Protein backbone atom coordinates (compact mmCIF):
# COMPACT_ATOMS: atom_id res chain seq x y z
CA UNK A 1 0.00 0.00 0.00
CA UNK A 2 1.44 3.43 -1.08
CA UNK A 3 2.01 6.06 1.62
CA UNK A 4 0.40 9.51 1.21
CA UNK A 5 2.58 12.56 1.55
CA UNK A 6 1.11 14.66 4.47
CA UNK A 7 1.74 17.96 2.66
CA UNK A 8 -0.07 16.72 -0.43
CA UNK A 9 -3.07 15.75 1.67
CA UNK A 10 -3.27 19.09 3.47
CA UNK A 11 -2.87 21.03 0.19
CA UNK A 12 -5.61 18.96 -1.39
CA UNK A 13 -7.83 19.66 1.62
CA UNK A 14 -7.22 23.42 1.35
CA UNK A 15 -8.07 23.40 -2.35
CA UNK A 16 -11.29 21.50 -1.70
CA UNK A 17 -12.32 23.99 1.00
CA UNK A 18 -11.43 26.87 -1.30
CA UNK A 19 -13.51 25.38 -4.15
CA UNK A 20 -16.52 24.92 -1.88
CA UNK A 21 -16.29 28.48 -0.52
CA UNK A 22 -15.14 30.17 -3.73
CA UNK A 23 -18.10 32.54 -3.91
CA UNK A 24 -17.61 33.66 -0.30
CA UNK A 25 -13.92 34.41 -0.93
CA UNK A 26 -14.80 36.26 -4.14
CA UNK A 27 -17.52 38.28 -2.35
CA UNK A 28 -15.19 39.29 0.51
CA UNK A 29 -12.49 40.33 -1.98
CA UNK A 30 -14.93 42.46 -3.99
CA UNK A 31 -16.31 44.09 -0.82
CA UNK A 32 -12.76 44.93 0.40
CA UNK A 33 -11.82 46.44 -2.97
CA UNK A 34 -15.10 48.40 -3.04
CA UNK A 35 -14.50 49.81 0.46
CA UNK A 36 -10.93 50.83 -0.46
CA UNK A 37 -12.12 52.62 -3.62
CA UNK A 38 -14.94 54.38 -1.71
CA UNK A 39 -12.54 55.59 1.00
CA UNK A 40 -10.08 56.93 -1.58
CA UNK A 41 -12.91 58.82 -3.33
CA UNK A 42 -14.37 60.27 -0.10
CA UNK A 43 -11.03 61.15 1.56
CA UNK A 44 -10.01 64.76 0.96
CA UNK A 45 -6.70 65.42 -0.73
CA UNK A 46 -4.14 67.35 1.28
CA UNK A 47 -1.47 69.61 -0.21
CA UNK A 48 1.66 70.93 1.45
CA UNK A 49 3.56 74.14 0.80
CA UNK A 50 6.85 75.29 2.32
CA UNK A 51 8.31 78.75 2.85
CA UNK A 52 11.99 79.06 3.78
CA UNK A 53 13.55 81.62 6.11
CA UNK A 54 17.22 82.52 6.47
CA UNK A 55 18.28 82.92 10.11
CA UNK A 56 20.31 86.08 10.79
CA UNK A 57 22.39 86.88 13.91
CA UNK A 58 20.39 87.41 17.12
CA UNK A 59 18.37 90.60 16.88
CA UNK A 60 19.23 91.71 20.42
CA UNK A 61 22.91 92.06 19.58
CA UNK A 62 24.06 95.22 17.87
CA UNK A 63 27.21 94.94 15.69
CA UNK A 64 29.43 97.97 16.10
CA UNK A 65 32.55 99.01 14.18
CA UNK A 66 32.06 96.53 11.33
CA UNK A 67 32.11 93.39 13.49
CA UNK A 68 30.60 90.37 11.70
CA UNK A 69 28.45 88.01 13.77
CA UNK A 70 27.94 84.33 13.05
CA UNK A 71 24.74 82.32 13.47
CA UNK A 72 25.05 79.52 16.01
CA UNK A 73 22.98 76.29 16.12
CA UNK A 74 21.36 77.71 19.26
CA UNK A 75 20.17 80.74 17.27
CA UNK A 76 18.50 78.43 14.73
CA UNK A 77 16.80 76.39 17.50
CA UNK A 78 15.59 79.62 19.14
CA UNK A 79 14.11 80.84 15.87
CA UNK A 80 12.37 77.46 15.42
CA UNK A 81 10.63 77.96 18.77
CA UNK A 82 9.72 81.57 17.98
CA UNK A 83 8.06 80.70 14.65
CA UNK A 84 5.39 78.69 16.47
CA UNK A 85 5.14 81.15 19.40
CA UNK A 86 1.82 82.68 20.44
CA UNK A 87 2.47 86.20 19.06
CA UNK A 88 3.38 84.87 15.60
CA UNK A 89 0.39 82.49 15.59
CA UNK A 90 -1.93 85.32 16.63
CA UNK A 91 -0.61 87.65 13.93
CA UNK A 92 -0.87 84.93 11.24
CA UNK A 93 -4.41 84.00 12.37
CA UNK A 94 -5.41 87.68 12.21
CA UNK A 95 -4.14 87.96 8.63
CA UNK A 96 -5.58 84.61 7.49
CA UNK A 97 -8.90 84.91 9.29
CA UNK A 98 -8.54 81.46 10.86
CA UNK A 99 -6.12 79.49 13.05
CA UNK A 100 -3.91 77.29 10.86
CA UNK A 101 -1.41 74.63 11.86
CA UNK A 102 2.14 74.70 10.59
CA UNK A 103 5.35 72.84 11.28
CA UNK A 104 8.84 74.32 11.31
CA UNK A 105 12.09 72.44 10.82
CA UNK A 106 15.74 73.14 10.14
CA UNK A 107 16.70 72.51 6.52
CA UNK A 108 19.62 70.13 6.98
CA UNK A 109 22.45 71.63 9.00
CA UNK A 110 22.03 75.13 7.62
CA UNK A 111 20.79 78.56 8.74
CA UNK A 112 17.55 77.93 6.83
CA UNK A 113 14.23 77.12 8.49
CA UNK A 114 11.39 75.53 6.51
CA UNK A 115 7.83 76.50 7.44
CA UNK A 116 5.39 73.88 6.10
CA UNK A 117 1.61 74.22 5.93
CA UNK A 118 -0.96 71.61 4.84
CA UNK A 119 -4.38 72.45 3.38
CA UNK A 120 -7.08 71.22 1.02
CA UNK A 121 -5.81 73.26 -1.94
CA UNK A 122 -2.28 74.11 -3.09
CA UNK A 123 -2.99 77.86 -3.09
CA UNK A 124 -4.31 77.82 0.49
CA UNK A 125 -1.31 75.81 1.71
CA UNK A 126 1.03 78.34 0.05
CA UNK A 127 -0.91 81.25 1.52
CA UNK A 128 -0.69 79.81 5.04
CA UNK A 129 3.05 79.09 4.79
CA UNK A 130 3.82 82.55 3.37
CA UNK A 131 1.61 84.31 5.93
CA UNK A 132 3.38 82.57 8.82
CA UNK A 133 6.78 83.42 7.33
CA UNK A 134 5.81 87.09 6.89
CA UNK A 135 4.32 87.29 10.40
CA UNK A 136 7.55 85.86 11.83
CA UNK A 137 9.74 88.29 9.85
CA UNK A 138 7.57 91.22 10.99
CA UNK A 139 7.85 90.08 14.60
CA UNK A 140 11.64 89.76 14.34
CA UNK A 141 11.92 93.15 12.64
CA UNK A 142 9.89 94.76 15.44
CA UNK A 143 12.12 93.13 18.06
CA UNK A 144 15.28 94.28 16.24
CA UNK A 145 14.00 97.86 15.96
CA UNK A 146 13.18 97.89 19.68
CA UNK A 147 16.69 96.61 20.48
CA UNK A 148 18.30 99.27 18.26
CA UNK A 149 16.16 102.04 19.76
CA UNK A 150 17.07 100.90 23.27
CA UNK A 151 20.78 100.77 22.37
CA UNK A 152 20.56 104.24 20.82
CA UNK A 153 19.00 105.62 24.02
CA UNK A 154 21.75 104.02 26.12
CA UNK A 155 24.48 105.55 23.94
CA UNK A 156 22.81 108.96 24.09
CA UNK A 157 22.49 108.70 27.87
CA UNK A 158 26.20 107.85 28.23
CA UNK A 159 27.16 110.73 25.88
CA UNK A 160 25.00 113.17 27.87
CA UNK A 161 26.59 111.99 31.13
CA UNK A 162 30.13 112.43 29.74
CA UNK A 163 29.22 115.84 28.34
CA UNK A 164 27.86 116.94 31.73
CA UNK A 165 31.10 115.78 33.43
CA UNK A 166 33.22 117.66 30.88
CA UNK A 167 31.14 120.84 31.33
CA UNK A 168 31.42 120.58 35.10
CA UNK A 169 35.21 120.23 34.93
CA UNK A 170 35.57 123.05 32.39
CA UNK A 171 33.52 125.42 34.61
CA UNK A 172 36.05 125.19 37.43
CA UNK A 173 37.94 128.43 38.16
CA UNK A 174 41.36 126.90 37.76
CA UNK A 175 42.03 123.83 35.66
CA UNK A 176 44.97 121.75 36.88
CA UNK A 177 46.99 119.47 34.57
CA UNK A 178 45.21 116.45 36.13
CA UNK A 179 41.81 118.01 35.42
CA UNK A 180 42.88 118.83 31.88
CA UNK A 181 43.96 115.19 31.40
CA UNK A 182 40.59 113.97 32.75
CA UNK A 183 38.71 116.32 30.40
CA UNK A 184 40.76 115.00 27.49
CA UNK A 185 40.05 111.36 28.45
CA UNK A 186 36.31 112.06 28.83
CA UNK A 187 36.22 113.88 25.47
CA UNK A 188 37.95 110.90 23.86
CA UNK A 189 35.34 108.49 25.33
CA UNK A 190 32.57 110.79 24.14
CA UNK A 191 34.00 110.86 20.60
CA UNK A 192 34.10 107.03 20.50
CA UNK A 193 30.50 106.83 21.71
CA UNK A 194 29.42 109.48 19.18
CA UNK A 195 31.00 107.39 16.39
CA UNK A 196 29.27 104.21 17.59
CA UNK A 197 25.94 106.06 17.86
CA UNK A 198 26.31 107.45 14.33
CA UNK A 199 26.98 103.95 12.99
CA UNK A 200 24.03 102.56 14.94
CA UNK A 201 21.71 105.25 13.57
Please describe what this structure looks like:
This protein is mainly α and about 200 residues long. It has a three-stranded antiparallel sheet. Helix 4 packs across helix 5 and helix 5 runs antiparallel to helix 6. The N and C termini lie far apart (about 110 Å). The relative contact order is 0.10. The model has no long low-confidence stretch (mean pLDDT about 80).
Rounded mean pLDDT score? 79
* Biggest sheet, spatial arrangement of strands: 1-3-2
Rg, nearest Å = 36 Å
**Total count of helical runs of at least 4 residues:** 6
Q: What structural category arises from helix and sheet content?
A: mainly alpha
How are the SSEs placed, and which strands pair?
Elements: H1 6-20, H2 22-42, E1 47-54, H3 73-83, H4 86-96, E2 102-106, E3 112-119, H5 122-170, H6 177-200
Antiparallel strand pairs: 1-3, 2-3
Q: Can you describe this structure in just a few lines?
A:
With 201 residues, this protein is mostly helical. It has 6 helices and 3 strands.
Keywords:
3-stranded antiparallel β-sheet
Amino acid sequence: MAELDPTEGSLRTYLQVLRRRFYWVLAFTLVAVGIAVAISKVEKKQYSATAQLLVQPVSGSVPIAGSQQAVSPTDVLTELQLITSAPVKAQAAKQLGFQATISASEAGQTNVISVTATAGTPSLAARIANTYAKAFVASQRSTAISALTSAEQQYQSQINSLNAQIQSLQNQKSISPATSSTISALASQEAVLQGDLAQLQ
